[in-house]
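Write out the 3D structure for:
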Amino acid sequence: MATVDFDFDSMREAAMGVLGTAQQGINSFAIENLPFVSGFTRMCNDGWLQGWHERNGGNLTYRMTDEDVESARPFFDPKPREWVKMGVTGENLAGSFFLTTGSGKYMRNVEGDPAHNIGIVEINKKGDAYRIVWGLLDGAKPTSEFPSHYMNHCVTAARTDGANRVIYHAHTPGIIEMSFIVPLTDRDFTRRLWQMMTECVVVFPAGVGVVPWMVPGGAAIAEASSELMKTYDTIVWAHHGLFAAGPDFDTTFGLAHTVDKAAQLYVAARAANGGSEDWLNKIEDQGLIDTCHDFNIKINEAFVG
């Protein structure tokens, strides 16, 4: 009878490799089903279904709670990746963790393959650099707009006593269309949007800020946006889209959805009116004021009267 020579070391290594691969699959499945990850991926898909994220357009970040961090920590990389300078500094959120979409990644792919399209990053103790601790596999990086996101997280967290955790950028068509035909001021955009639907002044009573066209992805647009975010939860990036902040995924998505629906109504109504803003009927300023009074909401008085 022939003798079979077993290489037990090789067999053990092969078995450990199979188990390791299986464990990675289990871990990936588990982290995808953590509530904050599933909510994040759903919002990415919702935006895609709205038509707001052609190709790799748009981005999303979420500042994790302490509970989120602890629930995700078992899935962090055994060895964190290198620190990367952001070009901006925000000390009040130093040490925080963020879930972020990836640079060059497509929103339509997030739901099917989170680990390659999104990732968790940790901010250093100075608040000027990040490192990836989970996801963004195969050399992927956080969205190129991450400096803008981080600065605006710092501002909105300070303004809302930590309540705001979501920053969302989408290529919303109505807002982009408006930026070609409406003066690029906070007041001009806000008044037109408020007058399109009764609910608008309730959803964003502070109004919207407007950033004239700027090169995306750098410190300059981050600084300009964060200055406006001291007042507003919503910013128009001219010829580029919408930047919105909120406490959770539903509120932030609902805000962006409301603003862009109003923008599309404005463009459609103006086109139907021969290009004129001389409306036959409209919501008057007193109606806006009365609506906020009835809902116990403070309107931005600079934009009425």
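The chain has two domains: 31-144+154-162, 167-303.
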